[in-house]
Amino acid sequence: MGRRPGLSVRLRLTLSYAGFLTVAGALLLAVVWGFLLRYVPDNSQGLLGVSPNRYLLVRTFAPAAAVAMGFLLVFGLVGGWLLAGRMLAPLTRITAAARTTGTGSLSHRIRMEGRQDEFHELADAFDSMLDRLESHVAEQRRFAANASHELRTPLAVTQALLDLAREDPSRDRDELLARLRTANTRAIDLTEALLLLGRSERGPVGRERVDLSLVAEEAAETLLPLAERRGIALDVTGGAAWTAGSPELLLRMVTNLVQNAVVHNLPSGGTVTVHTEARDGVSEVRVENSGAPLPPELVPTLTEPFQRGTERVRTGEHAGVGLGLALVHSIVRAHGGTLTLLPRPAGGLLVTVLLPDAP
C-alpha cells in the first residue's frame, strides 16, 4: 500500500519535546517581564537615582534571554532525540520481529525484558499471537499431510482393483464391483467430512433456535439400526435444551457423538446414553457409552484430525476416517461452546458439550 513519505515518529517526538521546552521557556520569560520589570521605574534616574531603570534592565536582560532560549531549543532537540530513541527502542524490536515473521519465520519471539508497560504488553501480545499462529500453521500442515494420505489410500485401492480387472478378466466381477464401491464410498465420505470441517471452521451459516433434545432424538433414530445390529442399548433422556446455531451442523455434531459411542463400544451388551438439559444459561448434551478402558493420555488426542486412538481403526460399513470428534470439536467451537472428554472408570467415554442457551 503506497503512502506519502512523512516524518518519523522519533523526529516528530523530538520536535514536540523541543517545541514544548521552548514554549515553556518563553512563558517563563514572559512571567518575569510581566511581574518584575513592569514595576521598575522607566525614567532616566532609575529608582531613587541609584537602581538602574527599565531601559537598562531590558538591554541587559534581552541578550541573556535570547541565549537562554537558544540553549533551550538546542537542549530540547538533542535531549528529545535521545529520549525518543530510548523510548522507541522496544518498538524497533517489535517492528524487526514483525518483518521477520513476514518472511515466513514463525519461531522468532521478542521476549522483551524489563518492567511492565505498554510496549511490553504489545510485545507479549505479539509473542502470544505468534505462538497461536505457529501452532495453527503446524496443525494445518499435519492436517494437509494426513488428508493427502487418507485420500491416497482409497484411490490407490481403486487403481489396484482396476489394474487387477484389466489383467484378469476372468475374476469375479461382482466381488470387484463391491470392493470398488467400498473404496469409492470411503473416498466420498472423507471428502464430505473435509468439506464440512472446513465449513464449520468458518462458523455457522445460520443462527436459528434449535432444540438439542429433538436433535438427539433424530440422531438416535438414525443410528438405532446400527446399535441393534451390534447389540447396543441406545437411550435418549433429558428435556428441552435450546441453543442458537446451524441445525445441520448441530445434527452432524450429535450424530457423530452417538455413532462414535455405538461403534467404540463393547462387542455386545453395551450401552449408550444421550442426555440433554438446560441449566445455568447453557444447554448441555452428554453422551456416555460403555467400552474398553481408555488411557487418560489418549483422550486429549481424540479431537485431532485423523486420530483414532489405540486399536480404534474400524472396518466394515462404518469404517471411519478419523474426523468424527475433530468435526464435533470444530462445530462446538464455531457455536461458542466447550467440549469435554473424560474416560469412564469402568470403561468407555463421557463426552459433554456445553452451548450457549437460547431462551
Q: What can you see in these coordinates?
A:
The structure is a single chain. With 359 residues, the chain is α+β, with helices and mostly antiparallel strands. It has helices at 9-35, 54-102, 118-167, 173-201, 212-229, 247-263, 324-334; strands spanning 208-211, 233-238, 242-245, 271-279, 282-289, 338-343, 349-356. The strands form 2 sheets. Strands 2-4-5-7-6 form a 5-stranded mixed sheet, covered by helices on one side. Strands 1-3 form a two-stranded antiparallel sheet. A hairpin with a 2-residue loop joins strand 4 (271-279) and strand 5. Helix 2 (54-102) runs parallel beside helix 3 (118-167). The two termini are 47 Å apart. The model is unreliable at 310-319 (pLDDT under 50).
Secondary structure blueprint with pairings:
Elements: H1 9-35, H2 54-102, H3 118-167, H4 173-201, E1 208-211, H5 212-229, E2 233-238, E3 242-245, H6 247-263, E4 271-279, E5 282-289, H7 324-334, E6 338-343, E7 349-356
Parallel strand pairs: 2-4
Antiparallel strand pairs: 1-3, 4-5, 5-7, 6-7
Helical fraction: 55-70%
- What separation lies between the terminal Cα atoms? 47 Å
Helix vs. strand class: alpha+beta
Instruction: Tell me the radius of gyration.
Output: 37 Å
The best one-word shape is elongated
- Average pLDDT reading: 80
Topology as a string of helices (H) and strands (E): HHHHEHEEHEEHEE
Strand order of the largest sheet: 2-4-5-7-6
Describe, in short, the structure shown.
The chain is α+β, with helices and mostly antiparallel strands. The protein has seven helices and seven strands.
Question: Keyphrases for this structure?
Answer:
alpha+beta; two-stranded antiparallel ribbon; 7 helices
